[in-house]
């Protein structure tokens, strides 16, 4: 290899890609910030390689991604991209709690196994090699569901526009209809008491590596039985047992996080706008917005700081029970309050965590395995201390004894995060909230 001055400029020659047995090369090259024929300063090329490796991993198509510059001379450079693809086809059995989180099921619902969903789902996470995803689900148990979703990130030659289509049909014999003391109240029947059909189409626009716009059109039709209507006549906004509406949504995401599943460095900004009801059926008229901003920074070799702020506002005077937000519902939560739902038309939260990398590596499982994707097991363990705080505004109709509304709540705690194969994250946490209640909790996605 020739001696290279980092201040010199090199011309990018041929880009070689290896390891992409299914993924199309165009999908891989789309993530690069340079192309064949570009002239780049050597020092800038090094920085671009680091960021481009992260972008390839964040496509969630590859277990590993390595970009190697091959300097032919002080002015000429070729590039080798070495990839290990993930396993893309998963026929996965469904065995999942129907409740909001494990604590809701374990404590509030007394570990009731009738509140479990089971069935089968088929994932193909790279259907045609274009990072297009197909998901088909047949589910029974607490919620009977039949659903289909197909998404493709690029449908145009410039690889800037994508498409998602989905449809689902759900039925329930047990539904929540109100809350008392911030605990959900449920009604149960031998017959189906709620039916919901939904179909959605979304166009995504990704003009640059880090910015994504989504335009979403949804049709929703829901019905409830007399049993539910008698308990809550405001279950739907139109004070009826049948509600159907079209909804429009827009979202913008600016994402510069290093790894989406468990970010350690970078930033993320999100904005969402939703209009429920477009004047076609007049069953609902509701507008909501959401803002989120997260920062992630490395303080030392193994010490990391994460912060996130979220704000939600619903501008409607009448919010149907079926479509409401609050702490305890995804994506809003305050650790230490896992048992509760704190619903409102306004939410604000701040979450922070200081993480220390205890252990990180890749374990060889079976080097002789016929399936490359399962020869190794990546893992990382992070000890952390955290602080959460949040504010929920006025309580909503159908709820009583709302002692957490219109005041700040919060918690502090310690925990262990485990990050492993295929973006799988386990959170083990012990927290104490503002009221002095303590508890040990675990969840299966990153808190920040």
Automatic annotation (TrEMBL):
State the organism's lineage.
Answer: Bacteria, Pseudomonadati, Bacteroidota, Cytophagia, Cytophagales
Could you tell me which InterPro entries the record lists for this protein?
POTRA
Asked if the keyword Membrane belongs to this entry, the reply reads: yes
* Keyword annotations: Membrane
Q: Which organism is it from?
A: Roseivirga thermotolerans
The chain positions of domain POTRA read: 10-86
- Which Gene3D superfamilies would you find in this protein's record? membrane protein fhac, membrane protein fhac: a member of the omp85/tpsb transporter family
Q: What is its main location?
A: membrane
Q: What is this protein called in UniProt?
A: POTRA domain-containing protein
Q: Which domain of life does the UniProt lineage start with?
A: Bacteria
Give the UniProt subcellular location, in the record's own words: Membrane
């Amino acid at each position: 290899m020739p001696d290279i001055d980092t201040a010199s400029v090199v011309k990018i020659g041929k880009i070689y890609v290896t390891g992409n047995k299914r993924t199309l090369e165009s999908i891989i090259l789309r993530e690069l910030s340079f192309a064949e024929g570009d002239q780049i300063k050597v020092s800038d090329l090094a920085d671009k390689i680091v960021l481009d490796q992260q972008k390839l991993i964040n496509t969630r198509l590859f277990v590993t991604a390595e970009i190697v510059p091959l300097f032919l001379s002080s002015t000429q450079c070729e590039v080798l991209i070495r990839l290990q693809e993930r396993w893309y086809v998963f026929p996965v059995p469904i065995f999942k709690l129907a409740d909001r989180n494990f604590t809701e099921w374990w404590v509030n619902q007394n570990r009731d196994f009738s509140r479990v969903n089971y069935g089968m789902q088929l994932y193909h996470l790279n259907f045609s090699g274009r990072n297009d995803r197909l998901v088909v689900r047949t589910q029974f148990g607490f919620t009977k569901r039949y659903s289909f979703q197909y998404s493709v990130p690029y449908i145009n030659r410039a690889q800037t526009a994508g498409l998602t289509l989905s449809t689902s049909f759900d039925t329930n014999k047990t539904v929540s209809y109100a809350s008392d003391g911030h605990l959900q109240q449920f009604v149960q029947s031998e017959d189906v008491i709620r039916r919901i059909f939904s179909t959605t189409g979304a166009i995504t626009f990704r003009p640059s590596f880090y910015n994504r716009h989504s335009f979403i059109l949804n049709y929703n039709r829901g019905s409830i039985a007399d049993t539910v209507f008698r308990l809550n006549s405001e279950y739907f906004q139109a004070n009826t047992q049948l509600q159907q509406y079209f909804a429009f949504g827009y979202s913008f995401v600016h994402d510069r996080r290093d790894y989406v599943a468990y970010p350690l460095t970078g930033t993320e900004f999100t904005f969402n706008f939703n209009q429920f009801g477009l004047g076609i059926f007049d069953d609902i008229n509701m507008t909501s917005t959401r803002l989120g901003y997260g920062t992630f920074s490395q303080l030392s070799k193994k010490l990391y700081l994460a912060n996130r702020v979220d704000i939600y506002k619903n501008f409607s005077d009448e919010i149907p029970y079926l479509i409401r937000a609050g702490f305890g519902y995804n994506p809003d939560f305050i650790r230490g309050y896992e048992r509760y739902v704190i619903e409102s038309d306004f939410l604000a939260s701040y979450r922070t965590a200081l993480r220390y990398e205890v252990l990180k590596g890749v374990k060889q499982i079976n080097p002789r395995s016929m399936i490359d994707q399962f020869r190794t097991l990546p893992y990382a363990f992070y000890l952390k201390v955290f602080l959460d705080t949040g504010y929920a505004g006025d309580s909503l109709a159908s709820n009583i004894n709302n002692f957490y509304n219109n005041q700040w709540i919060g918690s502090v705690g310690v925990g262990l995060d485990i990050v492993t194969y295929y973006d799988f994250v386990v959170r083990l946490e012990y927290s104490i909230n503002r009221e002095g209640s303590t508890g040990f909790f675990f969840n299966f996605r990153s808190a920040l």
